[in-house]
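Note to self: the last two entries modelled the partners one at a time, which told us nothing about the interface. This time every component goes in together.
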Amino acid sequence: MPEDLRQTERTTISRHAERGSFCRKTAYAILDEGMVAHVGFDIGNGITVIPMTYARLSDEIVLHGAIASRWLSSFEGGKPVSVCVTLLDGLVLAQSAFSHSMNYRSVVCFGDATVVTGKDKKQAAFKAFVDHLVPGRWEDSRQPDTKETNATVVLSVPIDEASIKIRSGPPKDSIKDLNLGYWSGVVPLQLTPGAPIRDPLMETEKAVPKYVVDYKRP
Amino acid sequence: MPEDLRQTERTTISRHAERGSFCRKTAYAILDEGMVAHVGFDIGNGITVIPMTYARLSDEIVLHGAIASRWLSSFEGGKPVSVCVTLLDGLVLAQSAFSHSMNYRSVVCFGDATVVTGKDKKQAAFKAFVDHLVPGRWEDSRQPDTKETNATVVLSVPIDEASIKIRSGPPKDSIKDLNLGYWSGVVPLQLTPGAPIRDPLMETEKAVPKYVVDYKRP
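The predicted structure of the combined assembly is written out below.
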């Protein structure tokens, strides 16, 4: 795989080009930390953007859904999608309203989503979906049987034509605004796990696993 | 405004219909809590999904960008978009890998994004962008001058053809899986503010405002 993502007209950052990057390694880090992808497609009645769980499988983003899903069934043969994963890192409060911003890291990926047919790859994707969200969980849960496997469609999108945009650090006010006397700075934001809530239907009493107690994103 | 959002073919929830809703009030609550919208559009080179800040202005979602932005300039006259706001509330760990899920609340909105031209409405949108992220901040910052106002394009999308999807609560394993002996339950997730970081370039020393110290989402 090339070190850089593929720059095309649509992956070229037109505004704040200094925030853009094509570094594959950075894209992987963002994709591995994120938990929800926003996927855009058009199956004949206009553009639709929906939130989906996902995982990175080497140089592909894998998505999944129920075979009974209306929209998924139209991906047989492949269909163009745009997949975006965004991590919100903070609110940027500048002296001027105009210079307010957010700190974030995002990846936007373009490509054809195709249906994964190989049994082994499908299984690898299932493992990735679970372990991406909760590392170690796959081995500590009942794995899919044939019926469940057949009921699930896995889509794959190559991580190739894609770009990264990152904003970090303090506000960037014009020099003339720096003495206006407002407070300026950053409010960091982080997705934080709360105390685990036991499933009331769980029949066997079981200690909360270490990977849940110590849960944090990579 | 009708109490319910408009149900059409594309806003009809095909899977897990029990998670769907068209309640306008609920949609507003999700939109008011969220901070990033994922916006899908096609300006001639395929579907693109990008993250944007936004605000709700009564029954519209307003978006904004620089007038110099390549893609924004093509919205003159209106262009269809899909706008999705997702709040991630938790990870759902079931006995079976197949029943793993996420707790979330999302709104998907379809409509034509049109350029806001009225000066007053544009100003109202600017206020909404800032106060949506940090309530009270607009009055405590320098407001946009004519040059900044003219350099910014505001888009409006009606909150009309839209749907909500919500998953909450414990895992939903099959009865036969409840005694498998794994731990099952929910790991709640919340976007949490950290300690504010002062802008090193701020020239006047100023206490951190109360709306920053006490920061939390609605």
